[in-house]
Model the fold of this input.
Amino acid sequence: MTTSHETSAPGSRLIDRLDLPLDLRTLEPAALRQVADEVRQEIIETVASNGGHLGASLGVVELTIALHAELHTPEDAIVWDVGHQSYAHKLLTGRLADFHSIRTYGGISGFPTRGESRYDPYGTGHSSTSISAAVGMVEARRSTGAKCGRPSDEGPDCLGVAGQPARRVVAVIGDGALTGGMAYEALNHAGHLRTPVLVVLNDNTMSIERNVGAMSAYLSRLRTDPKLYRFRRDFERRLQRLPGVGEKVAAVGSQLKDSIKAALVPGMLFEELGFTYVGVIDGHDIDALRASIRRALAVDGPVLLHCRTVKGKGYLPAERQPGRYHGLGPFSISTGLCADTEGPTTYTRAFGEALVELARADDRVVGITAAMAAGTGLDLLKQAFPDRFYDVGIAEAHAVGFAAGLAVAGRRPVVAIYSTFIQRAYDQIIHDVALQGLPVVFAVDRAGLVGEDGPTHHGAFDLSFLRIVPGLTVFSPKDEAELQRLLATALALDGPSVIRYPRSHGLGVNLPRPILALDGPWCEVLSHGKDLVLVATGSGVQVAREAAGRLAERGIAPSVVNVRRLHPLDSEALLELAHAHQAIVTVEDNALAGGFGSAIIELLQDHGLARLVARVGLPDRFVDQGPLEVLRREVGLTPENVARVALELLGESPATER
Done:
C-alpha cells in the first residue's frame, strides 16, 4: 500500500466506475481487493487533509466490502459501533463524491447519521450501542414489522427502506466498544430472545485476546454450516425423545459438547450467552469473510462473528502507532507528521501536569480514565505514577462507581471523562457519589463546542444536568492557570466536585508554582462599570471581556465578572452585582436550557429582583460540525454578538455591530 499522496485521474479508478454497493456482489476476488486498495487510499488522503479517525476506519475496509457484498443493503441494515469505523461504509454507499467534505462545515458527518443516507439506519458517535439497536430492529421485524419515526419526512426509515423492516441486521462492534456494559446487556437479552441477529466483532487487539488455530477454524465451519447446524439440532431433539435413555444421553452429549467447547473454542462466553460463536476470521481476507458471513446469516439464532483486524491497516505509521492515529488533525502522508499546532499549552495538558504535581504531594490521589488516557491528559499521571492510574475501558458508569469505592477506602480519585461521555454515568454521579457525599473529582474535558466531531461530541449539556445535583460543587476556569488552581481546590474538598473546561489551547497565561488552592472570590470582578454587567463563566469570560471592549467604543461601561464556581452560586456576591446594575448579560458555552444563565434568573426570581436579563450560549438544538470559530459565529457565542445583545438590552441601536 502506498503512503505517498497519489490522486488518480477522475474516472480511472475502479470505484469511480462501479454502481456501489450493488456491484460488489458480482465482482471477482481480485477486483474486490482493488476496491479495498482504492478505498483505503481515499481514506488516507482525505483524513490527511481534513483530520479524523484514521486507524479504525483503515482496519475495517475488507470487512466493510465483505458485508456489502453478502448483504442487500439498504434493505438489510448495518449498525456501526463505534461509529468512527464507518468511513469505508460511507465511500461504498453513495458518498464517494462527497467524501472530501467529511467532518467539514456543511459536509458529511464523520459518524453514521440517519438524515444523511438511507444506508445509515442508526446514528452513533458513542460506543457499545449497536447490539441493543440491532436487536430492537430485528425484534420489530419479528413482532409487528413496525416502522420507526423519521427525523423528517425525507429521512430514511430506521429499518430497511420504503417503510419495510430490515430483512437482516448486522451490528459491527469493535475498537474497544465491547468493554462497555451496555454491549453485554444486549448480548444477554439477544441470547434470551434467540434473536436472529449477526454481531460482527472487529477485534483489533483492543477488546478480546487473539485466538488462533486450525481447530478453532474447523469448529467454526462446522457450527455455521446450515445443514450440520440443523442436523445437530434435530439429532439432539431425537435423543431427548428416546424412552428411558434419551434424557441421559442428551445430558452426556451436552456435557461432552460443552467440555470440548470450553477447552478448544475461544468464544465459550458467547456460546453460554446463547450465541453461535464463529472465529477467529482474518478480517483482511475478503473471501474468508464472505464465506463466514454467508454461513452465519443462515443460522436461525444469534451469531457472533469474531474477526481479527489490524488497526491502521495499509498505512505503516498508523499500524506502528495505532493510538496516535486513532483520531488526529491534518497530517503529511509521506512523513506521518501532523500539521503545526504550536501555541499555548492546552487545557488538557495543563490539567495533566497539575494532577501529577498534586499527586506527588498527596499519595491518596489517583486518576481514572475510560479508555482516554492521552485524550484527557492522564497519560502524564500514568508515566509518573503507573500504580495510581486506572484505565477501565469504555465503561464510564463503572469508572464512576469504581471511583466511589476508592473514595470510601480513603483515596482521592480524579475521574477524567469528556463532557459528552460523562452523560453515560449520570446515575452513578448522583447515586454512588453525590448521595454519599464522597470526595470524587470529575475532570470534565471537552466542555462546550468541540469542532469537527460534531453533535455527538459537543459538550453542550453537562452544566445543565450537573448543577442540579445536591452537594456537587461545580467549577469552571477562565484560563489554564485557574484550571490548575481549581483542581487543587477540588482535591481539598470533603465532597464531590466537577471542573469543566474546553477542548482548546489556553490563553497563554503564566502557570505559577506551587499550585495553590483557591478560597474565593467565586465571583471575580475583572472590570467595573455602571451601565450593565456581563456575567460569564469558563471560555465565555474571554468572550465577555472582548465584548466589553466593543461596548466601551460605544461609550458604554460594563462590569465584567468571572463566575468560577457555578454550584453552589455565590448568591451574596451576585445579588450585590444585581443591585448595582439594571441590566445583566450572561455568557456560557453550555446549552441555555437549564444552564448558567438560567441559574442567574432563578437566583434573581428567588430574591424578588426584577432586572433586564439576556442570555448568550448554545441554542436549543444540536449544533453541527465545523471549525470552532465558524460554529461560534453560527450560535452567536462571539464578542460581536454579546455586544449586540447588550446594546439591545439597553435600548441602544446595534446597527454598527456585526
